[in-house]
């Protein structure tokens, strides 16, 4: 059997390696249009910021290594220009000589990836306008920054590439302005969590402009020297990066009537087979699906591409691996802060029709007496079943390990009640006795069982609508005098029993403290004393004030 793979970054090389591990009898050839293979796309910003000293560190293997290790022929600078799916043949061009030849396949794997989306008015090449997608882009950016005086950087797009490059270029001492078309940055997050991330960027000197597009540009010597935005803002530019997303590279199969998803990426089975016989697809050219509900999900990531490649290589050689879906998990560093998410956001869950419980959990990542710092966890659960649906975290302390616990829990269908019973590693340097994961489970399970939570957004909406609500501030009077929710009365937790006659037990009641724990105690007390409808404000006063600023 002759296996031909088109593309050799994360997905393509994984196909070849797994297929060879399973069988020595097949011919395996990989065609790569570029000159580099199996490189770390996600590591490229860190080379430009100086965290990675040598670019070659991001290219650990070459074609000769694959030939020696796996007996796989990787042909670089070689482009597949057409596919005949009926005859199962390919036309292939060697770019160095422009020589065209024909090849054939028994099984074909498309690992063609995705191409950067180029937005107007940057539709032609300019000396100082770059994308960040291939190793060649990294070399070009590095060369430009070393040879040219650069002060003002404009970055369009606030996905992972845009944010990572913002951090790294700021560390090079450059002034960076982020421009985002939508009204929030980092659109895979709920708005108020993205707002927290935006505050970190602002605190680190990044200029953030949202809700605008580039309308016209000013050029000189084939360079873009200025950009005029749709809101009338005029920006000067020495260097521009377009990080506005990607488009699946499906050109080679457009003539086939091959099945695609709404994302434009190729639809595949759990064995990575397309709708065309003997053609598989992996990586960024391919649409995945949600592990939670099976709905289509396109979230191109190197980790997913690598996994898909292994599955395809196994399936082609009669293995039993099958794709189980993804959660869209992501994590990124913003200077000294980490932001991560997995599964459904509140916005997505509600759009899908779930009745959700939403918790804001503000807790230190490890013991505060050993300098633990606060993380903000937003967790979403299905009220009906108790299943954990998603989580978002921002903080400086153990964000990575906790998002991975949530990923594991969701992947295995955990209910929020299960989180409390996890025997997580505890030592004051690494966690608290009641780890934020455990508390998340406790609070969400309580919310499902008569201890409801009210989010700041919901409270703000109900107050604006004029709903009759009894809002009680259970913090100290000193904290109340410093700042409080406008309609709230001050009744510290220790005074509630003595002053209970001042309250109406039949009226919907919202209690709040600073972060939520004392509020929960007050909620329990009032419910035990016969109050009918008592909510704890999730995340407390501190969270409410931040969300209120976001909503303004």
Automatic annotation (TrEMBL):
GO function terms (MF aspect): oxidoreductase activity
Entry superkingdom: Bacteria
InterPro entries: FAD-bd_OxRdtase, FAD/NAD-bd_sf, FAD/NAD-binding_dom, FAD/NAD-linked_Rdtase_dimer_sf, Pyr_nucl-diS_OxRdtase_dimer, Rhodanese-like_dom, Rhodanese-like_dom_sf
Transmembrane residue ranges: none
Cofactor(s) this protein cannot do without: FAD
Presence of keyword Chloroplast: no
Annotated Rhodanese domain residues: 465-548
Keywords: FAD, Flavoprotein, Oxidation, Oxidoreductase, Redox-active center
Tagged with keyword Flavoprotein: yes
Record-linked Pfam families: Pyr_redox_2, Pyr_redox_dim, Rhodanese
Xref: PROSITE patterns: RHODANESE_3
Family per record: Belongs to the class-III pyridine nucleotide-disulfide oxidoreductase family.
Name of this protein: FAD-dependent oxidoreductase
């Amino acid at each position: 059997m002759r296996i031909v793979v088109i593309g050799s970054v994360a997905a393509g090389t994984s196909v070849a390696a797994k297929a060879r591990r399973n069988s020595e009898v097949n011919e395996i050839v990989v065609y790569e249009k570029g000159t580099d293979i199996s490189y770390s796309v996600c590591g490229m910003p860190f080379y430009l910021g100086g965290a990675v000293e040598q670019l070659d560190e991001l290219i650990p293997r070459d074609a000769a290594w694959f030939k020696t290790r796996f007996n796989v022929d990787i042909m670089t600078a070689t482009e597949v220009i057409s596919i005949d799916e009926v005859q199962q043949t390919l036309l292939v061009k060697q770019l160095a000589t422009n020589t065209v030849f024909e090849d054939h396949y028994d099984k074909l794997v498309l690992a063609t990836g995705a191409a950067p989306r180029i937005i107007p008015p940057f539709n032609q090449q300019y000396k100082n306008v770059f994308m960040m997608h291939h190793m060649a882009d990294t070399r070009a950016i590095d060369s430009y920054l070393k040879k040219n005086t650069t002060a003002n950087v404009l970055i369009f797009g606030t996905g992972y590439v845009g944010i990572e490059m913002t951090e790294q270029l700021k560390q090079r001492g450059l002034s960076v302005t982020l421009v985002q078309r939508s009204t929030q940055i980092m659109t895979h997050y709920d708005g108020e969590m993205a707002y927290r991330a935006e505050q970190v960027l602002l605190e680190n000197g990044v200029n953030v402009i949202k809700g605008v597009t580039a309308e016209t540009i000013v050029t000189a010597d084939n360079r873009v020297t200025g950009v005029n935005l749709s809101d009338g803002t005029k920006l000067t530019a020495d260097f521009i990066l377009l990080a506005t997303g990607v488009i699946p590279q499906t050109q080679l199969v457009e003539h086939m009537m091959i099945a695609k998803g709404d994302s434009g990426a190729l639809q595949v089975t759990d064995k990575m087979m397309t709708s065309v016989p003997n053609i598989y697809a992996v990586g960024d050219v391919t649409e995945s699906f949600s592990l939670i509900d099976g709905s289509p999900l396109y979230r191109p990531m190197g980790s997913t591409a690598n996994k898909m490649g292994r599955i395809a290589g196994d399936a082609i050689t009669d293995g039993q691996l099958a794709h189980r879906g993804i959660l869209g998990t992501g994590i990124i560093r913003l200077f000294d802060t980490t932001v991560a998410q997995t599964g459904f956001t509140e916005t997505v869950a509600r759009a899908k029709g779930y009745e959700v419980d939403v918790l804001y959990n503000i807790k230190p990542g490890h013991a505060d007496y050993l300098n633990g710092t606060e993380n903000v966890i937003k967790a979403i659960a299905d009220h009906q079943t108790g299943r954990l649906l998603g989580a978002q975290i921002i903080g400086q302390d153990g964000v990575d390990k906790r998002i991975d616990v949530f990923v594991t829990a969701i992947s295995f269908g955990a209910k929020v009640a299960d989180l409390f019973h996890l025997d997580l590693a505890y030592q004051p340097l690494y966690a608290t006795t009641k780890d934020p994961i455990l508390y998340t489970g406790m609070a969400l399970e309580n919310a499902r069982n008569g201890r409801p939570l009210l989010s700041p957004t919901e409270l703000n909406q109900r107050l604006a609508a004029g709903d009759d609500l009894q809002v009680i501030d259970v913090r100290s009077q000193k904290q109340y005098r410093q700042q409080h929710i406008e309609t709230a009365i001050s009744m510290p937790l220790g005074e509630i029993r003595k002053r209970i006659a001042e309250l109406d037990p039949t009226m919907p009641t919202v209690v709040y403290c600073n972060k939520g724990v004392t509020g929960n105690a007050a909620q329990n007390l009032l419910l035990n004393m016969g109050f009918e409808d008592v909510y704890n404000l999730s995340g407390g006063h501190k969270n409410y004030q931040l969300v209120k600023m976001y909503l303004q």
